[in-house]
Design a protein that fits this description.
- β12 and β13 form a beta hairpin.
- By secondary structure, the protein is an alpha/beta fold.
- It is globular and about 60 Å long.
- The model has no long low-confidence stretch (mean pLDDT 97).
- α1 crosses α6.
- An eight-stranded mixed beta sheet has the order 5-4-1-6-9-10-12-13, sandwiched between helices. Strands 2-3 form a two-stranded antiparallel ribbon.
- The protein has six helices and 14 strands.
- The N and C termini lie close together (9 Å).
- Bound molecules: ligand PMT.
- Ligand PMT binds next to α1, α3 and β9.
């Protein structure tokens, strides 16, 4: 099968030397790409800025911002059988990024932010029949409630829920999978590669 995966953070430019980003290392998305490749699938990985060597055999498309990631995802969804979005995409970006370095001035600075595209939401709204769409939810509170809300709102087939403390920037993860039929499957805690293999076994069992 053709599997499209997103990984890592995005960077949203403030000026030529500053940006807004987050602590995603990309390890979870890269582990899913490696596991999918090891299982014989054709894998495209769309990656934000991370310092991981891509797994051999995986086609990697490097992006920086949420807008770049949106373009790359939309250009690659048409023939994907499975889409798994593990990236930590910025929800906001500076409304007016500067071309010159911002000068320090007296007083506080107020930065106006505007919404980025909800890439997974757009993919969910345009999902083709037979396509399997899997999102992630990274939460500090109310993990199950928030994950189930995203499963529904973004028209997903599965959502992989993880606590920020368990998965964000770490080498291991603890994931619970939820699907639209009300199934809840807690995967054993383990290395991100082991979790990725377990996750693929569950979501691809009927494919
Ligand atoms: O990269 P690691 O250090 O290994 O950490 C892994 C991880 C914790 C980042 C990963 O397991 C994870 O949970 N990824 C999703 C993080 C996140 O931003 O979740 P969210 O709840 O904000 O977003 C929900 C879903 O919508 C995600 O699938 C996300 O990719 C997607 N999204 C979010 C915002 C946006 N503008 N567009 C999106 O497509």
């Amino acid at each position: 099968m053709k599997i499209l995966i997103t990984a890592g953070p995005t960077r949203e430019k403030i000026d030529p030397v500053r940006y807004i980003s987050n602590n995603s290392s990309g390890k979870m998305g890269y582990a899913i790409a490696q596991a999918a490749c090891e299982s014989g699938h054709e894998v495209t990985l769309i990656s934000g800025p991370v310092s991981i060597t891509p797994p051999p055999g995986v086609k990697v498309i490097k992006v920086v911002s949420a807008a770049d990631m949106a373009n790359a995802v939309h250009s690659n969804t048409f023939d994907a059988d499975v889409i798994i979005m593990a990236a930590a995409v910025a929800d906001y970006r500076p409304a007016r990024p500067l071309d010159s370095k911002m000068k320090k001035l007296p007083g506080n600075l107020f930065l106006e932010l505007e919404r980025t595209e909800d890439i997974l939401g757009t993919v969910g709204n345009n999902k083709k029949s037979g396509q399997l769409l899997v999102g992630f939810a990274a939460e500090t509170d109310d993990l199950e409630k928030n994950a189930l809300g995203k499963l529904e709102r973004k028209n997903l087939d599965w959502i992989a829920a993880n606590l920020v403390a368990d998965g964000f920037g770490t080498d291991t993860n603890r994931i619970t999978l939820y699907n639209r039929n009300g199934e809840k499957i807690s995967l054993p805690v383990g290395s991100k590669l082991a979790v990725a293999h377990d996750m693929l076994k569950v979501i691809l069992r009927n494919e």
